[in-house]
Amino acid sequence: MEQFSNIGIIDSVEPMGLVDGPGIRFVVFLKQCKLRCLYCHNPETWTCNEGTSITSEELLKRIHKYHNYYKDGGVTFSGGECLLQKEFLIDSLKKCKMINLHTAIDTAGVGIGGYEEILKYTDLVILDIKAYTEDLYKKITGSNMDEFNRFLEALNKSGKDVWLRQVIVPGINDTEEYILGLKEYIKKVKNVKKVELLPYHLYGVPKYEKLGIKYPLEGVPAMDIDRCKKLQELLNA
Predict the structure, then answer these.
(1) What are the pLDDT digits (tens) for 167-205?
(2) Cα(41)–Cα(114) distance, rounded to whole angstroms?
(3) Which of 10, 41, 110, 206 is the most exposed place for a label (fewest CB within 10 A)?
């Protein structure tokens, strides 16, 4: 996708997000993603089709309308995969920092490089860990871990705060053995402030039906919330 530095393709925005970083957030959902995760609930963001073009200046004007709400919050760039629109992301992050807004990126860590520059203007990284072993990562995402590992190396060097998230899916990674392995793996990640296990849900299924795409986890039930809480307790212990 050819892209000028100040033009991005977005799917939508959420001016009053409450779960995408600390405080009240203006959340920008960018289009495009390389991964095809089995449990993805936003297949409409995979490509730039039917996206909305916006300049970083236009985006900042929209953010500024709600500026007073973000005293203890800020702006979060999500997706799709925000790292894939590198130039637009960097330009937008710079503009947010110019008006002293807290910035976060919600990412799976699979972009196209430029990570050091992106992280320079990022206060918090919300990192989605798909899996910590090469085989399971490939099974879940359809890709190898090479690009994720490159991002993780840059993240560790950056010294930025990190929230880690892991979706827990019945029959795939809902065992105590997996969680104990995850607990060891995350010791490799620096400045981790929070680790969240997210229960797999079925909210995205109607989107696949609408798009005419076969749902990869057809027949797999939603993750039991109480079981997920028990695994979170094991992780925190």
Answers:
(1) 999 999 999 999 999 999 999 999 999 999 999 999 999
(2) 27
(3) 206
